[in-house]
């Protein structure tokens, strides 16, 4: 199949993106989470006890989602910037909420994706202020531009 063929002919992009971005059921043990993040198992247990991260297993079998990997990494980044653990966890939760909203916008609004003359075209659906027109994002090596068509 030719790579330049429109992506929307290859697959239903909206369904694909929803499937890729949905909450997953991949769970890591505490040692895998520790290895992935550089945070000790003892610290992770403390963070669970304080409610900063969620444990999906039992007390003796800690299990953590891939989303928790990003939460732990975020907390660690903010701590490295000088924030307290509590402030780091709060900021990480705010960033996580922001990421969920961006993901929702993406899955709600992307109608199709195609490629034309080296540009990626993303149809974001009806433009609310102009209900007769669709908002199209054109992305290439120089940046992103928007059109109403």
TrEMBL record:
This is Predicted transcriptional regulator. GO terms for molecular function: DNA binding. SUPFAM superfamilies: Putative DNA-binding domain. Pfam families: MerR_1 (PF13411). CDD domains: HTH_GlnR-like. One of its GO terms (biological process) is regulation of DNA-templated transcription. Residues 28-95 form the HTH merR-type domain.
């Amino acid at each position: 199949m030719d790579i330049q063929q429109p992506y929307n002919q290859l697959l239903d992009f909206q369904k694909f993106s929803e499937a890729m971005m949905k909450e997953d059921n991949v769970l890591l043990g505490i040692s895998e989470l520790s290895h992935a993040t550089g945070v000790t198992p003892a610290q992770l247990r403390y963070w669970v006890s304080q409610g900063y991260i969620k444990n999906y297993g039992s007390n003796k079998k800690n299990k953590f989602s891939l989303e928790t990997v990003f939460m732990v990494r975020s907390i660690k980044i903010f701590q490295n910037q000088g924030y307290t653990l509590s402030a780091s966890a709060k900021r990480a939760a705010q960033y996580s909420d922001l990421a969920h909203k961006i993901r929702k916008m993406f899955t709600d609004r992307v109608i199709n994706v195609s490629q034309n003359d080296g540009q990626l075209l993303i149809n974001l659906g009806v433009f609310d202020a102009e209900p007769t027109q669709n908002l199209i994002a054109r992305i290439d090596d120089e940046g992103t531009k928007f059109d109403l068509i």
